[in-house]
Amino acid sequence: MQTLASLIQHTWLIDQAAGRFVLRQLLENKAQPAEPAVTYAGVRSSAPSLMGGGTQGAMPGSVVVICVDYPLYGFYADWLCRQLQQASMNENVVGIICRINSPGGVDQAAYKLFDTIQAIKKPKIALCEYGLMASAAYWFALGFDYIMASRATDRIGSIGVYSTFMDDTGFWEQYGFTLKDIYAPESDRKNEEFRAAQEGDYSLYEANNSRVAQLFIAAVKQYRAGKLKITKADDPTRGALYVASDALKNGIIDEIGTADRALQLIARMAAGETIQDILKSEAPDDAGEEDDDPEEDPEHEPDDAPEAAAQIQSSNQNPDTSMFGDKHKKLTALAGQAAVSDEQLNEVNANLDSLGITGVRVISTGYLNEAENAVSALATANTTITTLTAERDSYKAKAEAYGSQPGATPSKVEKAEEPLATATPQVISETDAEMQRMLKKQQGK
User: What Å distances lie between residue 101 and 10, 107, 139, 252, 323, CA to CA?
Assistant: First the structure.
């Protein structure tokens, strides 16, 4: 009954149909939802994925993944706050993802959850996954760094407030009871909203709802500043519930993408990048800013803004895609690798060829460094050759200039040929002496 009392006593920030369904379930079954499990996913692999998440505790480098699948009220909001605070204090946890499918809840739960998540400084992403992120659940999402939807058909928004007045007089009368409320003279304003409503005057309820709505709208404008688009034709703060594709256009969410995409963003944010730097690095080089329409509020985008503004969404809108889409898995598989083999590079380039991308090639930084060194060495060699050629031409010109002066041709001196003197051999043994004597005899003849 604690859950039922929580729903009845507070102002509701909830999709009306969902709120009445929950209330009816509680009345019929007298049950409240069980606490869901918290899972953990690692971000240190080359391709982080929520598919490998577990419930055995946070290892170093883990992301806490919390499923928000119920209306936000009472014990459930308290449980979510405890999980978020534990994740914030856990040194092994580097980020938080909340997978939200909730119609909203009571205002006090929204305040508590928003204050808790907004105070956490670790990277955090709210993902509306196959369902609703409405009213109080959206107020909760405003405290995250980035708001995503899993599909274009998810429902986002319901930025508004209402309450339900329940007069149970008829319930007691069927059992023969007649209720009479008796107040102390000093307590003439006690329960005045309820008492006035019994008389058909709902103005006090409306005034209270208005105060809460103003706080809600102020929070949306503050935390979606620069993104929220309010036009004459459409104002998202008036309570409408949008499909995600329209929510993206009017700026109440940031992207349509998968849970794995959210995890990959958390991994990069945990490594030191801001979400703004990540989006800037992924944006096309020729992306430009839209011009404001002078007829509209200068703080907001015009209603007829170019269609391209609504397409700032991830290309991975199917559940089985990765950060760059499943067409480039060979390339995304290299993320986080310090060294890449030639075989891996060949596979990536073959993949590009198969997609008709023939003007681009992926090479390793090692090859790139070698190429840069070779170009530098070639430039040095060309400079040396140019210097030597210039020096050679200079010396040749000087030689030709000196050679054309008088006396430059040397005179040639003829030298008479002189007979060679016959040297007397030196006698060094008796045998030589005998040979000399024999030679002389021969000459005498």
Answer: 21, 17, 13, 16, 23
